[in-house]
Structures are given as C-alpha cells and as structure tokens.
Design a protein that fits this description.
The chain has about 240 residues and is α+β, with helices and mostly antiparallel strands. The chain has three domains: about 70 residues, Arc Repressor Mutant, subunit A (Orthogonal Bundle); about 60 residues, Alpha-Beta Plaits; about 70 residues, YebC, transcriptional regulation domain (Alpha-Beta Plaits), CATH 3.30.70. It is about 45% helix and about 20% strand. The strands form two sheets. The chain has a four-stranded antiparallel β-sheet. The chain has a four-stranded antiparallel β-sheet with strand order 5-6-4-7. A hairpin with a 5-residue loop joins strand 1 and strand 2. Helix 2 crosses helix 4, helix 5 packs antiparallel against helix 8 and helix 6 packs across helix 7. The longest helix is centred in the first third of the chain and has 19 residues.
C-alpha cells in the first residue's frame, strides 16, 4: 500500500483520548449530528452516519451514547447549525496539514486555526495548496495480538472489497475506497474482528521527515489543532521518528 502506517499515530492519539474521552465523544457526537441532519437517522440509507458510527465504535464510545446522539440530533435539528470548514497549510519542515472542522462560528474557528499554525512556525495556505498530496481512503487498523491469523484476515478483507492490506509487527492496516468503507467494516466486524481505529482518512501519497527540532514544533502544532473544540480531524504527512508513545 502507500507505506503510510498509522499505528504509531493511533497509539499516540489513543493515549490522549484516554485523558480526554469526554471531549472525543463530544466531537464524534457532533459528526453524528451533522450526518443525521444531512441524510436522516436511518443507517441503511445514510452512509455518512454509518461511517461516523464505525468511528465511534473504534473509539470505544458506548452504544447508548451513540443512540442518544442520533435521537438528540433527529429531535433537535432546528438548533444545530454546524458549518463544515477545511483549512490547508504547512507546518515546520514543509509538513503538509489538512484541518477539518465543524463550527457555528467560522470567524472564531479560522482565528483559532491560524493561531495554532502561526504560533508553531507554520502557515495557512489557500484552498487546494496541499489537498493534492492526499487521497481520501477508508482505513481500518487491527492490533496484532497473536490471536489473529494474518492470511485469514487478508483474505477476508480482500473478499469484503478492500483495496489493500498491509501488516507490520504491531498492527494490520486495511485500506478501502471511501464508498466501500462501511461494507468492509461491517463484514469484518461480523467475522469477529475488533478495530483499533476505523474511519475515513486523508492518506498522504508521500511523507516528509522533519528534523528533531522541526518535529517537536510540528507535534505541538498538531496538539493545539486537535485540542480545538471545533476541529474534528487533523491530517498530515510527517513521519515520526522513534516510538515515543
């Protein structure tokens, strides 16, 4: 596949999520709300809602929370007015960054995102300045525990419609076309597999390796962006040296 293994990043994010679980669930709940607003509460016909629920499950969001989020969104759509925003720019060392946000105040969000870039030696760019460096893909990651047969998983993933399968010493990574993400996820879930991460991602075509000083600034910038209430997802093409999680 692309050679872009997400496992190190996922472990890093999981550690943060343990400390900020309520905030993570709030962001996922917002994604569910927007999905319901756009396509209704029926998961059979609303692929975006199915994708959001898959993300919720991989983040260990309790099923009751998911159900409440759907019912709340369906019953209170008149009060929900989130606007989808996307920002692109560069971090230190030429790292490409895409920020996806859901906001009820675009001026506030734009100012907060710009501040995170500026404070850490990055710069916001025009729309499209880095998007061409990424492909939108479904990415499912399964932690290698010793109980999973790699060949069986690979065959099951490909049979379910996955584009690619990759493995290293710690995890298996399955890549799908965005439209096939839900069906592949559901097939593997029914087969008994559990996911460390399952979501639609912007996967970089190539990565860059900032030096140690630049990497520290990049990580601080990414942390600041991900901690913003309005920011849903942050994608980048930086390689992380070592395994500091």
């Amino acid at each position: 596949m692309s050679g872009h293994s997400k496992w190190s990043t996922i472990k890093f994010k999981k550690g943060k999520a343990d400390a900020q679980r309520g905030k993570i669930f709030t962001k996922i709940g917002r994604e569910i709300a927007v999905a319901v607003k756009q396509g209704g509460a029926d998961t059979a016909s609303n692929s975006r809602l199915r994708d959001a629920i898959a993300k919720a499950k991989s983040s260990n969001m309790p099923g009751d929370n998911v159900t409440r989020s759907i019912k709340k969104a369906a019953g209170e759509l008149g009060s929900i007015n989130y606007e989808e925003m996307e920002y692109e720019g560069y971090g230190p060392g030429g790292v490409a960054v895409i920020v996806e946000a859901l906001t009820d105040n675009r001026n506030r969000t734009a100012g907060d995102v710009r501040h995170a870039f500026d404070r850490n030696g990055g710069s916001l760019g025009a729309t499209g300045c880095v998007a061409w460096m990424f492909d939108r893909k479904g990415v499912l990651v399964i932690e290698r525990t010793g109980k999973t047969d790699e060949d069986q998983l690979a065959m099951a993933a490909i049979d379910a419609g996955a584009e690619d399968f990759d493995a290293d010493e710690e995890a298996f990574e399955i890549t799908t076309a965005p439209d096939d993400f839900s069906s592949v996820h559901e097939a593997l879930e029914k087969a008994g597999y559990e996911f460390a991460s399952a979501q639609i991602d912007m996967v970089p075509r190539n990565t860059v390796a900032p030096d140690a000083e630049e990497q520290e600034k990049v990580m601080k910038m990414l942390d600041m962006l991900e901690d913003l209430d309005d920011v849903q997802n942050v994608y980048h093409n930086a390689e992380r040296s070592g395994d500091e999680e």
